[in-house]
Amino acid sequence: MPSVFTPFARRATHVALRAVVALVIGWGSGLPALVQAAAPAPKASAASTSALPRQTLADALDAYERGDLRAAERQFRALSRQGVALGDYNLAMMHLRGELPRPDKRVARQLLERAAARGLVRAELALGQFHEQGEATGVPDLVQAQQWYLKAAAHGSVDAQVAVGTAFYLGRGAALDMAEAARWYREAANGGDVGAQYLMASMYESGLGVARDLRLARYWYEAAARNGDVAAAAKVKAVDAALAEEAGTV
């Protein structure tokens, strides 16, 4: 069983900085996975960590996977009343996916905001996407999206760190700021995001947002290559040649 109940999936295109960066988080079309009771827990009240809510969450997940959406709704709603952020979050996702008799995106936003206030970082990330896609009004609010992405990024979400970096890189929902873009791409790269690793390498290679440093460029290209980026493997060889030329050994 997947470990996360999420409405979106990131589509990342790894490109050199001579092209337009295209790292955008989008709502996914597939059935979202469900948060299991063993998933990392957010800050929560005593009710959210007691045996009863964990059992209720397991029951709700089981009902959802069986296709019994009415039972899942009742149990996620009960979790929400008990102060469990995952109850808020999963119920919000059912609203957004039109799986309730009267789905309401405004209610979904309220539930996500409550889950975020209860410490669920995934809800902060989802709120960024909610506003980026203009789910409530049909008009994207990139500034509001960036505020939620910043919160999630500061709390360790790698996806949010990529989104924040991209906003600064493109001047999309934030002022154009290559140094800030590099800061957040570096955070995501350290968190294992292969696209961010390639972008950091490119930024060090070109000196965009950071001091030009071919050794650091090589470090990040190699990291991306180890994570399966074929283009990065070729760039390692190119940077090695450039380093040898600078050293006068070619």
Structural features:
disordered N terminus
Structural commentary:
The structure is a single chain. This protein is elongated. It has 12 helices and 2 strands. Mean pLDDT is 83; it is low at 1-34 and 36-50. By secondary structure, the protein is mostly helical. Helix 2 runs antiparallel to helix 3, helix 8 runs antiparallel to helix 9 and helix 10 runs antiparallel to helix 11 (214-226). A hairpin with an 8-residue loop joins strand 1 (8-13) and strand 2.
Roughly what is the average pLDDT, rounded to an integer? 83
Quaternary organization: single chain
As laid out across the biggest beta sheet, the strand order is: 1-2
**Unreliable stretches, pLDDT < 50, 5 or more residues?**
1-34, 36-50
Shape: elongated
How would you classify the helix and strand content by structural class?
A: mainly alpha
Give me the strand/helix succession: EEHHHHHHHHHHHH
Number of helices: 12
Helical content, roughly? 55-70%
The whole-angstrom Rg is 21 Å
Strand residues, percent: under 5%
Q: Report, as a whole number of angstroms, the end-to-end distance.
A: 54 Å
Total number of beta strands: 2
Please summarize the sheet with the most strands.
2 strands, antiparallel
